Amino acid sequence: MRYWKRIAFMVTLSLFPRLLAAHSFDIASLAGEHWYGLYLNGQKSGYACNRLSQDASGQVTVAEEAHFLIRMSGIRQDMRISSKRIYSSEGALILVESEVNDPAGAKTFKARVEGDTLVLHSEVGGAAIDKTLPKPHESLRDALKQVELVGAGAKVGDTLAFSLFDPMFEREMKGVSRVVGMEERVFEGAPARVYQITTTLEELGITTNSYVTDSGVTLEDTFAQVMTMRLEPEDLAKDVRYSNDVIVSNAALVEKPIGDPRSRSSLRLVLRGPLTTPLLFNDERQQLHATGDKFEFTGKRVVLDGFTPVRLPVTDADAAQWIKPTTYIQSDHPKLAAKAKEIINDEADSFKVSERLCHWVYGNVHTTFSARLSNALEVLEDPQGDCTEHSILFIGLARAAGLPAREVAGLVYVEGDKPGFYFHQWAKVWIGKWIDVDPTFNQPLADATHIKLAEGDLLQQAALLPVIGQIKIEVPDDSPSS
Q1: What is the pTM of this model?
Q2: Is residue 260 a contact partner of residue 432, using CB atoms and an 8 Å limit?
Q3: What angle in degrees, to the nearest 10, is found between the helix axes of 334-344 and 387-400?
Q4: Sign (positive/negative) of CA torsion 440, 446, 448, 451?
């Protein structure tokens, strides 16, 4: 059960704006590379490199690569994420490429400007998808506007706007950077003025805090209060010993075990941490409210006594939007459609369809920890993984069957030597109302220990990033015992 890889997908977004912070538009003076150590909640988890170059024709290439080397319940995991952006000699965007290499193979994304459009080609899980999108506003000049922040005359309060197209999100991401502080430091043996800059990605609601010298070198950068990137010599940056076990280090451990976690009818908890209003979900299964400096959670086991599930096909227009395929949930692929048909046969009762799919995924996906850019088709072909793989395959099969389904993320209680609440992913399906389903635990109705903090696709779930590893949970003495 893990959520850290959501951070990994967004690291390249935070790299690019910093690289171009400099006091001159002289590309030759910006050319070169910088190495960074990556620290997840204070523990070394990988390294990254930024490179900028210009060829003889004047085209400028900005490239980034991040390499994560961590443990997941003692198992070593490697993931590489890289991106490349090419601009014309006039500064116009030409090409954006991204690639994720994980144990399951490479996922590639290439977006090329063609006239007034952007043609995006994605290959995920062996399926190729082509989309034509509006031409982004992004240009090299747009990115280089950051020179205003650390150039001559820079002062606290200066701001700039920028936009970057991200092919994995399939949209242009807008952001604003602001100088919030200045100080004097010694850098490379000489006095240097260092600017503290905050950058907010508007669509994600995530803030990056950077320290940049007046010569344009980023010394340190903290992304979403979780991932820190620190300037280091190449050999030191690459010195990673797989010491960070992200499963345990990001969990909210509890002092006393919770009795009957899977079958109890209700559960009351006290949460502390940087939870914001968008993370406080309230529905039939859970209530989560702010009370002073803490948050009170009440979860209960939902029962369907007296409720009649709708029959397929679903006619509710709002719910039906969650049947559509996406890049990562390829529910229109013939293999997913055929497997869904095989599992549900001619069943039309929406809850029974969900139940059959839940039991099948639980029984056929081998549970293991894996650092992968999860997608439904790939899991169907290689049925193994943790909660992310279980839930995304379940959602892919549900949508292929015509059952609306979407991703849910948050925390769930896990027993064992270190009992506590671990970051987790499950699903919701529409059966006339939305219900929580957890195929990882074979639960057609998710138990009371599930704490929902986000729902929707990758973009919507980004709101959860700043709280990873930051939540503490107490079990009150008067919490129901069963």
Answers
A1: 0.83
A2: no
A3: 80
A4: positive
**Are both 153 and 92 inside the same structural domain?**
yes
Contacts of 275 (CB under 8 A, 6+ apart): 288, 290, 295, 453, 467, 471
CA 56-57-60 angle, to 5 degrees, is: 90
Residue 353 placed within a domain: yes
Range of the domain at 198: 5-237
Domain boundary (208, 237, 266) is at 237
Q: How many CA atoms lie less than 13 Å away from 328 in the CB half-sphere?
A: 21
Co-location of 98 and 69 in the same domain: yes
Query: Going along 302-442, which residue ranges are E strands?
Result: 366-367, 384-385, 405-414, 420-430, 434-437
Q: Are residues 438 and 320 in the same domain?
A: yes
How far is it, in rounded angstroms, from Cα 47 to Cα 49?
A: 7
Q: Are residues 271 and 185 in the same domain?
A: no
Regarding whether 70 and 206 lie in a shared domain, the answer is yes
210 pairs with which residues across the strands?
197, 221
314 and 283, same structural domain? yes
The band of 192, judged by pLDDT with boundaries at 50, 70 and 90, is confident
- When mean pLDDT is compared over 1-15, 356-370, 448-462, the highest value belongs to 356-370
CA distances from 356 to 245, 395, 426 (A): 34, 13, 16
